[in-house]
Amino acid sequence: MATDPVCGMAVDEATSVLRLVRENRTYYFCSPACLAAFSAPEEERERVVQRLLLAWPLAVLIVVLSVLFRGLAANAPSLVFASAVQFYAGWPFYEGAWTALRGRQGNMDLLIASGTSAAYLYSVAVVLVPGRLPSTTFFDASSLIIALILTGNFLEQLTRTRASSALRRLAELVPTEVRRLADGVERVVPLTEVRPGDLLRVLPGSRFPVDGRIADGRTSVDEAILTGEPLPVARGIGEPVLAGARNLDGAVTVAATGIGPDTFVAQVGQLLGEAELARVPLRRTADRLAAGFTPAVLAVALGAGVGWGVLGHASLPDAILVFVTVAITACPCAFGLATPAALAVGTGRAAEEGILFRGGDAIERAATVDLVLCDKTGTLTSPRPEVGSVRPVPPFSEADVLALAAGLEASVNHPLADAVLARARDARVLPRRFDEVTLDPGRGVRGRSGTQRTELLRRDAAGGAGVSLAPLGGWIATVESAGDSCSVVVDGGRLVGGLSFRSPVVPEAKAAIAALRSEGIDVGLVTGDHEAAAHRVADPLGIRLVHAGATPQGKVEVVQRYRAEGRRVAFVGDGVNDAPALVEADLGVALGSGTDVAREAGQVLLVRSDLRAVPRAIAWARRTVRRVRQNLVWAVGYNVVLLPIAAGVLVPWFGLRIYRWLPILGAIAMALSSTTVVLGSLLLRLPPPTPDGSEGPAAPASGGIAGARKSF
């Protein structure tokens, strides 16, 4: 069974004739009105307004006539006015009812059409065949019911539009025309003509039309609506930009890498659409309730009307009013909307903070997590190492060691090279110049200045090359016992000194772990590094569950062990070796800086590599699932309370005269019920409380989202 994306009703794909293909996905609808509301919402709202402009004046006029006049003076004009309301303003309900009957699926339109038609047709018979039936007419009731329900539909459309994700609305802001550079000439062309590799000129104040990398120029970019980063981020040559982000400062030339459906924002929109229609367990429960609801209500309505007519000696008009009241009061849409309305708002709001939920049940899985296992490198520690200490061998100085190492690394593109150059800059040491530099993968870097050869070698490679490390023996032991690695500088065969490298703990790790613990979630560390390196990171963070020396399969076994104990495990990682554990865990959380494999394996994607987004993701999931349950409680409670009243539970106290006003009150309640579900879901747009009790999102880390485009 598919789900109508507008009203949430279950639809049988095999029999449904109302479908729409958009962005390679097929949507199914229970009625033409839902199809129109989805495919052209603005036009559908205009049509609803036109129907309301006719329905309300005529309905009020019918009520006035019924109060001021009696007999034919009131009934004849009321018949004309009510017919216009019934078959113009109420025509969408008949279309939806006919579609439901053809597909053998109950929907809200079938209930509305049945109830209002019963009241209208009886009234027509009273007017056309006078004296054969009791003279009471219900033109006022049928017209007011249609006007009220149309009003409810209009309010629901407005609230649903408000609930739509800002990210999806952003797709409409991407420019449709671009400035393309070809052979030195700039031309304005449609975006549809752009191909990967094309050079585009983007002026200050404009939005980037494609995903790409800056080929010329420098600027600052506002990516807040894409990544949740509140501050502008600097972008220069070679750095990535995303479609929909705003260029703030300088004119830049961008080489296109992702266009249209291949852009980050388009892929996020697809994820959000999938989340809205996801068949999560709570959604399946609601669908089962909604699927059999309409036939059951019609049976109850017919049984109540006949029952009060036979057992309660109600007149035919009163029996018809009982049927109308039950049919109009019921609201299966509230069941259908309970889950998608909350998912639409919750996932969209989380996406604005750079938290993306993938897969049908990712958000429900995230809500149940009670243990978060983290990889070390790139997750708890920065993927960019830094120089920990520099130890010269006399008579050399620390500056000698840095000058030689930085001179060798100046020509190398490697994270360790960046660390050495950064340390040399901080120490104000100029790198030594070399005539020739070669990289020896896995061993180090070699350079030549004249006939003198200089090397920066890994500690194990230096020992294998016959270099005596005895002068640095104590220092090496201390460094490695702390979990750091080291390299040595050899100049002309003489040992000059050593440098240690460490991966610093990311600044946000402590706050993230504290936030998880405040929610009753344990945190563990699983790493392939040795015990000392693992505890160097875990101990300052207060992590007691430490699993060191874990291979990719070992990480899977750790996850399996905790799951066997009944824990609901989330695994947070960013590397290829994390992918099996991400899949095995109840919830895989992939960081934005991670490899494509890791991001494909995760059910939750964090656009920015900010560990604080992990507790935020779980907080959003818990809030969203809690709102789904509250919506379902409202939907069930509404029908459980009001349907017995509609069927006559109050008649022994108030008599059948209550049916003079119950149909109108039932229509008001029904019109507001699904609107209430959507309005309740909109509360998710309010920021959740942070662990210290304040409102608002955790402070985002600075930095871009390099590499995040192809994460789906």
Task: Detail the topology: elements first, then pairings.
Elements: E1 2-3, E2 10-11, E3 19-22, E4 25-28, H1 32-39, H2 41-68, H3 72-89, H4 91-102, H5 108-128, H6 139-163, H7 166-170, E5 177-182, E6 185-190, E7 199-202, E8 211-216, E9 219-222, H8 224-227, E10 233-235, E11 240-241, E12 246-247, E13 252-258, H9 264-276, H10 281-291, H11 293-310, H12 316-329, H13 332-352, E14 355-357, H14 362-367, E15 371-374, E16 386-392, H15 398-409, H16 415-426, E17 436-440, E18 444-449, E19 452-458, H17 459-464, H18 473-481, E20 485-491, E21 494-502, H19 509-518, E22 522-526, H20 531-541, E23 545-547, H21 552-564, E24 569-573, H22 579-584, E25 587-591, H23 596-601, E26 604-606, H24 613-647, H25 651-654, H26 662-682
Parallel strand pairs: 15-22, 15-24, 22-23, 24-25, 25-26
Antiparallel strand pairs: 1-2, 3-4, 5-6, 5-7, 7-13, 8-11, 8-13, 9-10, 9-12, 14-26, 16-21, 17-18, 18-19, 19-20, 20-21
Helix pairs in contact: 1-2, 2-3, 2-6, 3-5, 3-6, 4-5, 5-6, 5-12, 6-26, 9-13, 10-13, 11-12, 12-24, 12-26, 13-24, 13-26, 15-16, 24-26
